[in-house]
């Protein structure tokens, strides 16, 4: 692919109608001064110029080489932008985004056409802004995002509170939002702006805990509420190790606009940075998409299959951290008429009683995975042994699945609130069990997430647990296993009080698998090529580390899971800026006592340049009893060695069936 020389503007102000200025970084092809080009926008809260952004910035530089103006914008209240960032995906953020797109379209170096690309937060708001239909927005690439903010994010899933994700993510954003803007950009007023952020930016976890059901708060920004609002072509991208992958399938089914889906074996990463691999040249795929819709070139994307996915084969847990075994497959339409639902009865050992006070889930790794070894799940045998399991006979033939498995059960409980955790695993002939997908269901949400309905103790209920979308090939001789438990720590917050859930034996329990017949055309798919190397960047980085430690005291019955990440130190050799960041998450639970559940999060963010040195330390803590959650957040800020700010805020929020 031909490339063009690139000019980089490290800082560009974008003025908004209310006087607020957003900070941007711009990559321009040299030719844009004489001939305007389309623009590609990434709109995020992760600081456009941080040294840690170098790999993502390389992606933008390659867009500029391909003849696009690439623009990375700090959201209001983040990075070097003015204002406060009061929550995820607030209406102000989306309104600002529409203004940014209009501003881009009016620049002399832009031809009036704009595309959006983003991973995670930037993938979310790309869809949300597309639903607002700004005239200049012609195409979107959304990576590792979702269409449903309540059912499919890091706050709740299946109506259960994600203990492993909600407070840790809120703690991360608390620390991010407490960092100062760069004095070299914003000038002498940086201290006053920093003080405003420290004092007025809230801890998001309080708002998230206040909304425990799928109310108007979560419907806002959930594009599944009205897919027809999106008329912009969408390339939706996910990974099987990422919990948002199911949104790709739902967008394919729901959108009227041109849409294509791509799901690899990846975690929460861009496909060119994939962990585990194989990584692909994602830059070329994105340029094909934007060339089609922003430049009107026929690049063949209209002839591509509706959905391309990586079909994983068996691999012993822990052996595929760098590369997942399998192959690329495709479906010409989605939903695919080729995929058939196959029901497998679940009758083994019923009735069965599940104790919610068991410590089950320690082999599950992180819900939101980034590819590091500390976040990956392990062999499932230990958790299988603590759960009730249904296991098929060895398979006679290879069986591929693609889609959303579901598990139907008839249950009773002896308390008004309970939950189920359901795991689908692949059991090898040697007995080792590999996690394929897992889901949660808060049984008070059995009829929907809007209004919790308490259980009537002793009454039988028919429930269906949808598992997150997946693809997997079960080999001949392997067995399919469903494991069910009434607890799953530290992913799911424990039920309000000890509860026994009984799986009833009435013949209604079954596993429904989306079975995909193999097809010869898969071998003829256009191959993906390996990713291009990151462009050289003036960056020096010290290695980072991550670890997961599990400690169990058999006397007290207390288990502590500690996840530690040190991202190392990053130096921007171009302007002397540097950043250090680290995190610790600790999850504590004593068997038999759901009220012992404790999540503690610590974050450290340091940024500086020369004599300018700042450090932010946050500490967050969350507990619960039968009726309420209790949350505490502390923020401490330093300039040099001087403490310039400190506050602690505590709050108590009632439980509503969670």
Task: Describe the overall structure.
16% of the residues lie in helices and 38% in strands. The chain is built from eleven helices and 32 strands. Strand 28 and strand 29 (593-609) form a beta hairpin. The longest helix has 15 residues, at 91-105. The chain is globular and about 75 Å long.
Structural class designation: alpha+beta
Can you give the mean pLDDT? Answer: 95
Taking the alpha carbons of the first and last residues, their distance comes to 53 Å
Q: Specify Rg, calculated over alpha carbons.
A: 25 Å
Low-confidence stretches: none
Strand order in space, largest sheet: 1-2-4-3-5-6-9-10-11-12
- Helix percent reads 10-25%
User: What is the general shape?
Assistant: globular
Would you spell out the secondary-structure blueprint of this structure?
Layout: E1 6-15, E2 21-29, E3 37-44, H1 54-65, E4 69-74, H2 91-105, E5 110-119, H3 121-130, E6 137-143, E7 156-157, E8 160-161, H4 166-177, H5 183-186, H6 190-200, H7 204-210, H8 216-219, E9 234-239, H9 246-254, E10 259-264, H10 282-294, E11 307-312, E12 326-331, E13 340-345, E14 352-355, H11 381-386, E15 388-391, E16 399-403, E17 406-413, E18 419-427, E19 433-442, E20 461-466, E21 470-474, E22 479-485, E23 500-503, E24 510-515, E25 539-541, E26 545-553, E27 558-572, E28 577-590, E29 593-609, E30 612-624, E31 628-639, E32 642-654
Parallel strand pairs: 3-4, 3-5, 5-6, 6-9, 9-10, 10-11
Antiparallel strand pairs: 1-2, 2-4, 7-8, 11-12, 13-24, 14-23, 15-22, 16-21, 17-20, 17-23, 17-24, 18-19, 18-22, 25-27, 26-27, 27-28, 28-29, 29-30, 30-31, 31-32
